[in-house]
Amino acid sequence: MKQSGAVGRLATLRLLAQRFAFVSLIVAAVALMILGKADIVLVERTRSLVADAVAPILDAISRPAATINEFTESVRELASLRAENARLKQENQRLLHWQMVARRLDADNAVLHEQLNVVPGPDPAFITARVIGDLGSAYGHSMLLGAGARDGVRKGQAVLSGEVLVGHIAEVGERSSRLLLLTDLNAKIPVVVEASRTRAILAGDNKDRPKLSYIAGAASVSVGDRVVTSASGAAFPPGLPIGVVASTHDGIARVQPFVRRHELEFVAIVDYGLGGVLPFERPPMPEKRRRGGDN
Amino acid sequence: MKPSVWVQMDGWVRHIVPTGVTLFLLFLTAIPTHIPGLAGITPMLPMMGVYYWAIYRPDLLPAWAAFLIGLLHDIIAGTPFGVNALVMVLVQGVSASQRKFFLGKSFMVAWWAFSLLAAGASALSWLMTSILSGRVIDPGPAFFQYFLTLGLFPLLTRVLARTQMAFLKEA
Question: Which of A8, A34, A222, B152 could serve as a FRET partner for B83 with CA atoms 20 to 30 Å apart?
């Protein structure tokens, strides 16, 4: 009788300990959320450390997946070979015309540069990185890349696929980094509508088509207009193609990006020597300017 | 009599199977699939793992393991820190506390219960992410994700049951 009482007490104690552990885990999770809001640097460092640790695993298992994908892709391509060929022929004709135009403009441009003594901008350096992780969360659009600080990746750098802007680097670890896509809730990119030179901010909201907000001046945006990066804020070099305006419902213009997310396998992380959208330190501009003004 | 080192090691390896499999499901979700439209609605495979093991072997996937898996999920997905950790701990806790009800019940009951639990979990993640980002996030993808997850439940449960049969027969 006495023994069973002791066993019963032990079981109760154990249950209590379990309950306590459970509650403390919940408290820990909530505390982490608050910490994530308050101390961004610490949380970011932890994130990138862990991401670095799992990067080799993700890299290893994403490789066979890529191989399988290549195989199915080639089967699909074989199936549509004729149609694809016809389409490419047509496109080639069109592009040949554009090539001629581009050659003429290039020559013109060279002459004008010469006459104006234009100082050429520095050639951008770039790193090619593999997409190693894409959790495809419903609450954020980002990817893990298999290159980090040791490869020269820095926060805020532009990420391109071909000539097209994909997003920017949001977190950097030693050997992995996080690419924040244009469509993510937290992505805000200064852009310009090419035809009308209207400035705006391209703001992602986790939908496939980010919207144009803070449109400067009279809203002269129409469907089909190309949207490219602007030089405002010195985040990205001007003129990187982003997408075309797809719809303008109720005064909200949405942009269909050129990049197709599911096709991203390798991306180029480009260093234009600019601050990026997330500058590390505040530039000590005001003081210098004042001194310049006094002189 | 004390079992030999090898037998002990064998036991340990078998006992990390539930956590290992759930971690593998997480990595599986993170593979870039290159399937158009799937990004943003990838099924919540790790949650199914946590649910399954919490019912059948809660001793081998305790709450802290669910917490760590959720945290890793947050880190790989880039979602606010702690959201998935909270969701996973709650999924584990709720299913483990109700496991007596599930044991011996039909598969349909498990599916039905999972649909309720996953709905709650989705709603909670949506709510927490919205609060933490200070904006109302479009719930559309979360709905698709939810239904895709429900659709995959029978298949994944079968795989997990096979795994349990293969590695943890003694239970």
Answer: B152
